[in-house]
C-alpha cells in the first residue's frame, strides 16, 4: 500500500502532565502537500518535532519514507523550524554551504547552487555579508533556501510564511508548488488559512492537541455544501446576521461570507441586500477554509 | 563526514576572528610583562643607594668599599650571594660599578645615638638612603644596624651582612699574622651547582627555575582551559538561543554535533598554544647562547610531549563540562554561575599544585594526581618535577580517557535534552528516558 512518505499513528506527547498531542494520526502521500492547521498552541510544532525525532513521543508510531526514523534519512528531509535562527557571525553563502554539508552535500556543489538560489531570492548582493547584517525577512528567506538547497524528498515546513512580506510569500508558495511538481512531498503547518487553502491537497486540523478534522481539501469543502454566499459590498451590513434565514455571517468589512440555512434562500438574501447595500459582487461558494477552521475550533472549545 | 563539517566550521569561526589574532599576540606579551615588570621595577628602584657608614670599629669601611667595587672578582662571601642580581643587572655591574655607594661618616666625638638622630632627618629628606652603624665591638657582638627608609631590598642586606662577616673573619685571621693569601682562600665562598638526575642523563639546573617553569606551564594550561571552556559554553548557548540547534539536530547526530564542536574549538586552542610554543622554541634556539642552560635542560621533547598529552586531556575533560553547562542553562547569567563552579574545581589542583612542585612524590601529590579531574594539571606538574613511575602516568591517562568517554556519553545525551529545553526544565523521568534512548 505504501505510497505514503509519512504515516503517524496515534501519537501522544505530554509536557509536565499537560497533554500537548493527543492520539494524532495522519498520512502524507508522495508528491502531495499536506497542511497542518490549527491555532497557536494546538500542538503543530510538537507534532512536527516528533516527526523529526527531535522529541520522542510518549506513545504511538511514526513511519517516514517507508521506514522507522533513522540517521541516514536525515539527508533526504528538509526541515524549516518554527523558531528561526542562524549563526549571526557566519557569512550568508558560508551558512548555506555549512548546512548543506551537514546534509551530505559537497561544498563545491552547494556553493554554486546556493548562489543560484540567493539570486532567485534577490539576496545575491549579500553573499559575503554576515547573517547579522540581514533584515529579519532576508534571514527568513536565507533559512528557507537552506531548507531546500540539498534537494530533499520530503519537506517539513513549520510556519513557512510567518514573517514574510506578500512578495516573498508568493515566492515561497511558488517554490513549494514547484517542488511538488518535482515529486517532492510537503507537510507544512500554518494558522494562515488563506495561504493554506491555495496550495494544500489535503489537510489535518488540530486544536488543543486533538485532531478535529482531516481529509482532502475538496472533500471537506463539499461536505459543507454550497450553502455559502460571498459578497463584496459598501454600506452598513450589521443587519445581515439577524436575518431569519441566515445561519451565520462573517463580516470582513468590505466582504462578507454568509452561511444560509438552505440554499433556496439565496434569492431572498439578494433582494434584502440590494435594498440596503451597494453590492459589487454576489457569488455562491463553498465555505472558506477560514470559516471551516473557525467553526471547528469554536465547536471544539464548546465541547 | 558530517562531523568534519562541524569541526571545520567551529575551527574557522574562532581562528578567523580578530580576537584570536589579538590574543595570540597579546597573551605572551602580557605574560612576559607580568614576569619581567617586577624585575624591571626592582632594578629601577635600585639605582644607586647612598649609604653612610659609621664605622666605630675602624677596620671595616675600607674593605667594604673594596668588596663593593670589585664584586665579581672579590674573594669573599659577597660574590655568590649576588649571583641572582647579576643575572638581572646590566653588565656595568661587572665593570666594578656599584649600586651601593658607601660614604664614610666622620664620627668625631659623636655617640651613635646622636648620629642616628642626625641621619634619621637626612634619610627622611632623601639626602641619603641609609645609615650603616658598625659598633666598635662588632667582632664580639656580631651586630651591626642599618637605618633606611626602605629595608626591603633583601640582596643589599645580604651583601652588607655577609661582607661584614667576611671582613671580620679576615681581620681576625690577619691579626694572627696569617698569610693574606691563605686568609683570602680560607674565606672564599662555595659555589653550589645543582644537577638534576634523570634516566636519560643528568642535566644542570637551578632549582628555582624548575619551579618557575612548571608553574608557568600550569598557568598556561589553566588560562587556556578556562578561556576555551568559556568559548565552548557560549557557543553552545548561542546555538541554543538562536534556535539553530534544531536544524543541526535534524541534520546530524547529537554526538557528532557535540564532539565536532569540542574538537573544532579544541583544535583552535591547540593551534594557539602551538603558535606560542613554536615562537618560544624559535626564540630559544636563536638566543640559546644567552639563555641559562637550565631552561633548555627543562624544555625537553619529553616535557613537550607530556604537555601536549595533558593539555589535550584537560581540554576535553573541562570543555565537556563547560558545554554541558551551556546545554543545561538558558541565560548568560546562569551560565556564569555554573561555570564558576567548574572554575573553582580547576582551582583545586592549582592550589594543590603549589605543594606538588615542592614535593612531587608526597602521598598527597600521588593520590590527587590520579584523580581524573585533577590529573591534567597535577600529573603534568609531577612530571616536570621528577618523573613519576610510568605505571602511575599511564594509569592517570587511562583513567582520564575513561572519564572523558563516560562524560561525553552522558554529555551527548543531556546535550540532546537540554539544548531543546527552551525555558522548560526537563523532569528527572524525562532525562532518564533520554538516557535510555539511542
Notes on the protein architecture:
The complex is a heterodimer of chains A (303) and B (438). Chain A has 303 residues and is an alpha/beta fold. In chain A, 34% of the residues lie in helices and 30% in strands. Chain A is built from nine helices and 13 strands. Chain A has helices at residues 44-51, 92-102, 107-120, 136-148, 166-181, 193-199, 217-224, 266-276, 289-302; strands spanning 4-15, 18-29, 33-37, 59-64, 77-80, 154-158, 185-190, 202-207, 210-216, 228-234, 246-251, 255-260, 278-285. Chain A has a six-stranded mixed sheet, with helices on both faces. In chain A, strands 11-12-10-13 form a four-stranded antiparallel sheet, covered by helices on one side. Chain B is of the alpha/beta class. In chain B, the strands form two sheets. A four-stranded mixed sheet of chain B has the order 2-1-3-4, with helices on both faces. In chain B, strands 5-6 form a two-stranded antiparallel sheet. In chain B, strand 5 (194-196) and strand 6 form a beta hairpin. In chain B, 34% of the residues are buried. Chain A binds chain B through residues 15-16, 49, 52-56, 71, 74-75, 77, 79, 81, 83-90, 98-99, 101-104, 146, and chain B through 2, 5-6, 9, 13, 238-239, 241-244, 246-253, 420, 422, 424, 427, 433-434, 437.
- Please compute the radius of gyration of chain B using only Cα atoms: 30 Å
What is the CATH H-level superfamily of the largest domain in chain A?
A: P-loop containing nucleotide triphosphate hydrolases
- The end-to-end distance of chain A, rounded to whole angstroms, is 36 Å
Number of helices of chain B: 19
Strand order of the largest sheet of chain A: 5-6-7-3-8-9
Structural domain count of chain B? 2
Share of helix among residues of chain A?
25-40%
CATH topology title of the largest domain in chain A: Rossmann fold
* Global outline of chain A: globular
Number of helices of chain A: 9
Query: Largest interface, counted with CB-CB under 8 A?
Result: A-B, 29 and 26 residues
Rg of chain A (C-alpha, Å): 22 Å
Stretches of chain A where pLDDT falls below 50 for ≥5 residues?
A: none
Largest beta-sheet characterization of chain A: 6 strands, mixed
Order of helices and strands of chain B: HHEHHHEHEHEHHEEHHHHHHHHHH
CATH architecture verdict of the largest domain in chain A = 3-Layer(aba) Sandwich
Biggest sheet character of chain B: 4 strands, mixed
Class computed from helices, strands and strand pairing of chain B: alpha/beta
Globular, elongated, flat, extended or rod-shaped: what is the shape of chain B? elongated
